[in-house]
Design a protein that fits this description.
175 residues; alpha+beta; 4-stranded antiparallel sheet; 3-stranded mixed sheet; 10 strands; 38% strand; globular
């Protein structure tokens, strides 16, 4: 009797395996090519800032209260070879030809409390909560950097150069 029970159990087990295999074989073959599985953001690298469309120029709005209060910025310029730093105070809307270099810095808008949305760059207040200045740097007459420098976050989109460092130290109030 035990032998009969073992035979039935083995038979049932083989039947399950055979039926399982047949079901797998009976699945219809897709007529269209297989689509790759959906990837997660961690599997597919995103372009910088996640924007794949055309670059949209944002409007820069300097509030009247900011214009009335802030007129200059202070930069720290480092000569990486000599490891010496110098500070320069420059009016917004003007230029600085950096002494003993081939660099020229064109200073744009200063925003003491930088904020940005889809279409506008502005200052949320006239308090220096997130100071930033828009600059364009030229070397030998050629533009080598165009963007914003942030005094509290100097590593966000920094000016990168083999010999020189450039950082925004602070904004200077009208006085």
């Amino acid at each position: 009797m035990k032998r009969f029970s073992k035979t039935i159990i083995v038979g049932l087990a083989l039947s399950v395996i055979v039926i399982g295999c047949k079901k797998k074989e009976e699945q219809p073959i897709p007529k269209t090519p297989m689509q790759p599985p959906m990837s997660t953001p961690m599997q597919t690298p995103m372009p910088p800032h996640g924007n794949t469309g055309p670059k949209v120029e944002k409007k820069i709005v300097v509030p009247e209260g900011v214009k009335a209060k802030w007129s200059k910025v202070k930069f720290i310029i480092e000569d990486k070879t000599s490891k010496k730093s110098s500070e320069f105070t420059v009016n917004t809307g003007s230029e600085l030809n950096v002494p003993n270099t081939n660099l020229k810095i064109v200073v744009g808008e200063f925003l003491p409390d930088f904020r940005m949305d889809e279409s506008v760059i502005t200052s949320a207040s006239d308090a220096p909560n997130n100071p930033a200045v828009r600059v364009e740097v030229f070397e030998n007459g050629k533009s080598i950097f165009k963007g914003w420098l942030y005094s509290k976050f100097p590593t966000i989109h920094p000016f990168e150069h083999a010999k020189y460092g450039l950082a925004l130290k602070e904004g200077i109030k009208k006085g």
